Amino acid sequence: MLYDPVEAGNYAKEIPSLVSMCQRVAAYNADCILSLRGSLPVEFLPPILAQAQAEDLVRWEEDWPEIAELTRPVWKNVLRKRFPKEWQQLEAENKDPESWSECFTMFKEQETRRFEEAVNKLRNARADEDQRKQLRMTKVDAKLPPPKQRKYGQSWAPKTALQKTYTKASRQQQATFARTAPPAFTPKSYASLTRGARFNALEVQVR
């Protein structure tokens, strides 16, 4: 099928240029780019900066401070998404920081500090709860009466009905086993058995 020249021309306009494809690849691999200084013309940088993360912007600005004028709108979007509460405060106070990179670093340190405080607060609450639990257990143990000890010549407390039934059943079982078990084999029984065998052998010889 042959393309119409008009349709072919419209289709050709949709093909991305080599520059835009390179910008897209660079933006996708922004974390691998250590420096933008001298790598591309300045007019080619905005699409790459727009897709960069805050850490990438900090690294590039430290290496090339002059790029800060291009990163200002990018920083605003980053702070608006990552620190919405702090960004609302900035807008309410109508502040325009001289260095958006330093502003991001300050917000990040505040976030880290709040996280550490929350973790310490939770850890202290857990430790206090464990201490209160241990104290309650100690009080309960202190209220329990000590076990009674039998004095010399004093019998134990009377057995319960269950204990009496168990003792009686054990005695009956032992008595039944003693009646049914064969007598134990002793040296005396062996000697009497041997003498009986010899006597029977002599009686057979006499006959």
TrEMBL record:
<dbReference type="GO" id="GO:0070449">
    <property type="term" value="C:elongin complex"/>
</dbReference>
<dbReference type="GO" id="GO:0006368">
    <property type="term" value="P:transcription elongation by RNA polymerase II"/>
</dbReference>
<dbReference type="Pfam" id="PF06881">
    <property type="entry name" value="Elongin_A"/>
</dbReference>
<dbReference type="InterPro" id="IPR051870">
    <property type="entry name" value="Elongin-A_domain"/>
</dbReference>
<dbReference type="InterPro" id="IPR010684">
    <property type="entry name" value="RNA_pol_II_trans_fac_SIII_A"/>
</dbReference>
<protein>
    <recommendedName>
        <fullName>Elongin-A</fullName>
    </recommendedName>
</protein>
